[in-house]
Hints:
The protein is mainly α. The protein is built from 12 helices and 2 strands. The chain is 72% helix and 2% strand. The longest helix is centred in the N-terminal third of the chain and has 34 residues, at 66-99. It comes from Rhizobium hidalgonense.
Amino acid sequence: MSTYSDASGVIAPLPKIRRPTGFSGVVPAFAFVGIFFVVPVAILLLRSVLEPVPGLGNYAQLIGSSTYLKIFANSFIVSGLVTVISLAVGFPVAWALAIMPGRLTSVIFAILLLSMWTNLLARTYAWMVLLQRTGLINKMLMGMGLIDQPLALVNNLTGVTIGMTYIMLPFIILPLYGVIKKIDPSILQAAALCGANRWQCLTRVLLPLATPGMAAGALMVFVMSLGYFVTPSLLGGTANMMLAELIAQFVQSLVNWGMGGAAALVLLVVTLSLYAVQLRFFGNQNPGGR
């Protein structure tokens, strides 16, 4: 027991600090969630069913319009492509980082973090310069004789996919690295001693153990891609609009908060549904095999 000495020199025990118990201990957390999440979502929901006229007309218009359905399809197609490509590129990088010497790993991590800290708008404009018809990528491909005419890499879904994949890669490499780093190397050694070749060690040992990290990273990338605004608007153009651009257009250009709220709530429901699926199938898995 801790004690203290008062002015008269008498040693007495320190008074016990009463910690909140029961429901009172979580009141601040509930208040924070209520103020910054529940209340804004409730206001958005109300505006989506009350403006411009009460009812579900905004949702019916979103679902019934082929133009809006195309925007939803573009959003899911691009987000899915970005997620798959990020996984395909990010997994080897995460595995290499996990087995590299510590000093080299620190250098690679510094490059990854530097790319994340660089202004998003500046990175997107840099890709616009690289991907344009007279940009470095087209010049290199034509110089190597791989193409005769410049490729159209901007103002389409190709440019959006390339730019967003570059931006999303760190968000899938970092969780994958954390999971792969925890995998006990003796498991792979045991598989090799039992006769498994490298491909079998990868597909039947390493990939299953890294599945929780892959699922978490893929969910993060997919959800962030669905709500991205800057990169699709600059590299995609109006003909390849995505959901975040549609919401911004409803609110800023058309001042139609009802439709904007309906589109935003559809995006929120999709995000929460994906998160629920991820928890259902991967929430209780123990990554790393430990």
